[in-house]
Amino acid sequence: MAVKSAASLEAETPRDSPATNYRILVTTPTGARVLLATEIDWISAADYYAELYVGKRRHLLRESLASLEQRLAPLRFVRIHRRAIVNLARVREIRFSDRSGVLTLEDGTRLPVSRRRRDVLKAAIERKDADGV
What we know:
Helix content is about 20%, strand content about 40%. It is an alpha+beta fold and about 130 residues long. It has a single domain (about 20-130), classed as CATH 2.40.50.1020.
């Protein structure tokens, strides 16, 4: 029986499968912490790092937003700006103007929505509601 590599298993797993990387390992001063993707409220770009916001805590991860966007389940997370990804389950309000928008999370955090990403955000929220995810 041949043993499959992690890369080949990941390639075989659909991106919206529950098995798609729902755990993220972040380093801490005393070791490492395992974060469940469902715990993450939103993610921000910070130079060569991504800042993962979980409640009132912020965790740094040396990974690009583009990489995280590919790793996280597309039915749960959506990129709303070149510097931000949000967990759709945390979104409470969206206000659009002619040029851009502002998204408000459950905890009151306000994030900009770029003009280029607003249609993707609307479609993702409507799909989420329709699927009941």
